[in-house]
Write a structure and sequence with these properties.
- The structure holds 2 protein chains of 2 kinds.
- By secondary structure, chain A is α+β, with helices and mostly antiparallel strands.
- Chain A has one domain: Glutaredoxin.
- Chain A contains 3 helices and 4 strands, in the order βαβαββα.
- Chain A has helices spanning 16-28, 47-52, 74-82; strands at residues 5-9, 38-42, 60-63, 66-69.
- Chain A has a 4-stranded mixed beta sheet with strand order 2-1-3-4.
- In chain A, α1 (16-28) packs across α3.
- The relative contact order of chain A is 0.27.
- In chain B, the strands form 4 sheets. A 9-stranded mixed beta sheet of chain B has the order 5-4-7-8-3-9-10-11-12, sandwiched between helices. In chain B, strands 17-16-18-19-15-20-21-22-23 form a 9-stranded mixed beta sheet, sandwiched between helices.
- Chain B is built from 16 helices and 23 strands.
- Chain B starts with 12 loop residues before the first strand and ends in a 33-residue tail after the last strand.
- Chain B has helices spanning 21-24, 45-59, 73-79, 87-92, 117-130, 141-146, 150-166, 263-266, 287-300, 314-323, 328-333, 349-363, 374-379, 382-398, 415-418, 422-426; strands at 13-14, 29-30, 34-39, 64-68, 96-100, 107-110, 134-138, 170-176, 196-205, 208-217, 227-233, 236-239, 255-256, 271-272, 276-281, 305-309, 337-341, 367-371, 402-408, 429-438, 441-451, 461-466, 469-472.
- Helices cover 30% and strands 26% of the residues of chain B.
- The longest helix of chain B has 17 residues, at 150-166.
- Chain B has 2 domains: 13-239, Rossmann fold; 254-434, 3-Layer(aba) Sandwich (Rossmann fold).
- The chains are: A alpha+beta, B alpha/beta.
- Chain A binds chain B through residues 8, 10, 12-15, 43-44, 47-48, 50-51, 54-61, 65-73, 76, 93, and chain B through 99-101, 103, 105-119, 121-122, 124-126, 143, 146-147.
- β4 (66-69) of chain A pairs parallel with β6 (107-110) of chain B.
């Protein structure tokens, strides 16, 4: 199984709806069918995961060792999903 | 105060628990508010923050949350282990929680709009987990360096502080100043928390480093002004309030002669009235003799003095004085002098403070000698001794007493090590006396290690102790010929310099 792409968001953020919509667009594209899932973490429900992954800013998109800060566009998400095989699992804190 | 809105409650303060700081802040820091602690690198901001939480948990039953952006949790724990603070123990008991934001993602790109919802969420979560009443954020400068959009960082920090205020937690936010003289810290952190600002300084005075704390403003409440020295060591941080010594206007007349020939030249005319002088040296250097000189000189000028002795007894002191030609018993009868000798371990250290206060209140002396503090320091732990020193010094200062405090150092201990001791921090002047071997002779040497607000001779001078008392030689090793007169004689031929029978203390 491919390691998931992690996307940290919060209902309380101004970028919440925009970001959700971008994920929907990216996932609905044909390319996404064999791509790994984008796992969405709402930190207003799971603050402990924000601590575990050392997240400060929202949204944060974690793709392997890379972190994208700020609301991602659908195009960025698609690109990340397309590059799935070059990824390593997201870094967890010891 | 009469402009205060009737509905507005007076500001309630909480004690930080940092020794001496709450006296400076006249009770502590405003509850439910944020205070900025700003200082240069290494000025003690992080220890200040950690102690605020540690004392809160241990002494006041208030849990805390430490948000770290710089040092890792593990390093912070190690940093304060030496103070005897068991932070992991407090974590286990649910009295302390860390939010560790110290690691920085290596590959981080900003691609769109963002906020600090996750950071704020983490802090909120940690505060709720332990029921924190105190929060430390160390230091927010990191956020300005990690994120490109400074306006966003400011907006989000404001949100964070607002959130903490709503939770009614008291917050310490550390901020970094580039230099001690800077008016404000990097990124203008004070602007977010304009209420309360504390500055820490770590400046070098000659070869010594001097740490100082200053409360710049404290929301809606009184506090002491000016810079006050503090120490880091032993059980944490200790502030020494009320010790600042402002040299009186028009100096000359307000100096007190020590009465030792040659020494007043070294101290630029004597000791400032109201100053505290620490006399350091191993035993056998004649520190007691110097103290007796100081009191005899005072009595001679009809200035009252008290000697508090923790070493020699009263009759021995009288005999010592007599052998040097002073009639102490006579001075005592005419109420110019009071000799008090106590066994150092006969009472708790705080009781001596009370007794000293009573005697000083009654006699209103101009000069006080304490000979010496060393037995008291040995009798109690470091924290308690510090508190005693702080209280004693501020009391004597408030009375305008000029004080000489004797402190015995190990012969092998260098003056620089000794001058980092607790007493040295509160002392306005430090005089170091020592013995050194020179061929087959033992030479006595004296130097001024510190002299606040005064010019002083920075070289080491030799001195002799004879039946005439103590005498400091000038820079050509002259000026202490036998039977010295009040008026200085012309310099005699070389070689006859260190005259005078040497007498054991």
């Amino acid at each position: 199984m491919e390691p998931p792409i992690l996307l940290f968001i919060s209902k309380e953020s101004a970028t919440y709806h925009f970001t959700k919509r971008q994920v929907e667009i990216a996932c609905s594209s044909a390319l996404a069918k064999e791509a790994p899932e984008v796992k969405i973490v709402d930190i207003s429900e799971h603050p402990e995961l924000a601590e575990q992954y050392n997240i400060e800013a929202l949204p944060t998109l974690i793709v392997g060792a890379k972190r994208y800060i700020g609301a991602p566009t659908a195009a960025l998400l698609s690109t990340c999903m397309g590059l799935a095989d070059e990824r390593k699992p997201p870094e967890k804190k010891a | 105060m009469y402009f205060m809105h009737p509905e507005r409650r007076p500001i309630e303060k909480i004690r930080t628990g940092i020794a001496g700081f709450d006296e400076l802040a006249e009770g502590g820091v405003p509850r439910g508010r944020a205070v900025v602690v700003s200082g240069t690198a290494g000025s003690g901001k992080t220890v200040f923050g950690l102690e605020f939480l540690y004392r809160g948990a241990v002494e006041f039953g208030e849990s805390g949350t430490f948000v770290t952006f710089e040092e890792r949790r593990e390093d912070l724990i190690k940093d304060v282990q030496g103070f005897g603070w068991d932070l992991p123990g407090l974590e286990k008991k649910g009295k302390l929680a860390f939010v560790d934001a110290s690691s920085v993602a290596q590959h981080q790109v900003e691609v769109g709009e963002y906020d600090f919802g996750a950071l704020i969420g983490r802090i909120k979560f940690a505060v709720a987990k332990v029921g924190a009443k105190r929060v430390v954020i160390d230091s927010v400068a990191a956020l300005f360096l990690r994120y490109k959009d400074q306006a966003v960082v400011r907006r989000e920090l404001f949100k964070l502080i607002d959130m903490l205020r709503r939770l009614d937690v008291t917050t310490v936010i550390t901020a970094e100043r580039v230099r001690d003289e800077d008016e404000s810290s990097r990124f203008g952190v004070e602007d977010f928390v304009a209420d309360s600002v504390i500055y820490l300084y770590n400046s070098s005075v000659g070869r010594e480093r001097e740490r100082q704390v200053e409360i710049v403003k404290l929301r809606g409440a009184g506090h002491q002004t000016g810079k006050h020295p503090f120490l880091i060591g032993g059980g944490g941080l200790t502030v020494f309030p009320n010790v600042q010594f402002a040299p009186p206007e028009g100096s000359g007349a307000s100096r007190l002669s020590i009465g030792v020939k040659g020494i007043d030249d070294m101290t630029d005319g004597g000791l400032y009235r109201g100053s505290t002088t620490l006399l350091l040296g191993p035993s056998g250097t004649g520190r007691t003799v110097l103290g007796l000189h100081f009191l005899a000189e005072g009595a001679h000028k009809k200035e009252r003095g008290i000697l508090f002795s923790f070493e020699e007894g009263v009759s021995q002191l009288r005999a010592d004085a007599k052998s040097l030609g002073w009639n102490f018993a006579g001075y005592e009868r005419s109420k110019l002098l009071r000799l008090v000798a106590w066994q150092p371990e006969a009472m708790p250290i705080e009781s001596y403070l009370k007794k000293i206060r009573r005697l000083v209140d009654d006699a209103a002396p101009k000069r006080v000698v304490i000979d010496s503090l060393t037995p008291l320091a040995r009798a109690v732990d470091e924290q308690r001794f510090r508190r005693f020193v702080v209280a004693l010094n501020s009391y004597l200062k408030s009375k305008g007493v000029t004080t000489i405090v004797n402190y015995t150092t190990d012969a092998a201990l260098s003056a620089s090590v000794a001058s980092e001791s607790d007493m040295a921090v509160v002392a306005d002047n430090i005089i170091v006396m020592k013995l050194s071997e020179s061929g087959r002779n033992i030479e006595r040497e004296i130097s001024i290690a510190k002299s606040r607000a005064s010019a002083h001779v920075k070289t080491v001078r030799r001195y002799v102790i004879s039946s005439e008392g103590m005498c400091v030689l000038d820079d050509r090793d002259q000026g202490c010929e036998e039977k010295p007169k009040r008026k200085r004689k012309a310099a005699p031929a070389r070689g006859s310099a260190a005259g005078g029978k040497k007498k054991k203390r």
